[in-house]
């Protein structure tokens, strides 16, 4: 790990970056597992996060997280949307923890076309 300048050399991920990597990895693992269960063929899969931080108030914390799920393959859109919805409402422990402190929204792209969006909601 490293910090941003002037405190660090920006030579590695920061602790906050690692938290976001954990979020993306956790939800991606859920989606892959659910897609395999439904025999969907994933050719490419990427999850990215756009994080808005608080400004001028320390500590700087996440204010909003936007996840983008981008998949390519012979995938039924309804199964993909349901898999992501289940991850973001039932299975992803990292999302469940973070969503208690910061809103997490997501959008879904399949084969280059936006097919849906939603919000993490674990009923808490």
Throw out a few tags for this protein:
single chain, 124 residues, alpha+beta, GMP Synthetase, Chain A, domain 3, four-stranded mixed β-sheet, 3 helices, 4 strands, 35% helix, globular
Q: CATH topology, anyone?
A: GMP Synthetase, Chain A, domain 3
Share in β-strands: 25-35%
Under the CATH scheme, the architecture is: 2-Layer Sandwich
Tell me the structural class.
alpha+beta
Rounded to the nearest angstrom, the radius of gyration is: 16 Å
Strand elements, count: 4
CATH class: Alpha Beta
User: CATH homologous superfamily, by name?
Assistant: K homology (KH) domain
Largest sheet: 4 strands, mixed
Number of domains: 1
The average pLDDT is 97
Shape: globular
- The number of helical elements comes to 3
- Low-pLDDT regions: none
Q: Topology as H/E string? A: HEEHHEE
Distance between the termini: 32 Å
User: What level of helicity do the residues show?
Assistant: 25-40%
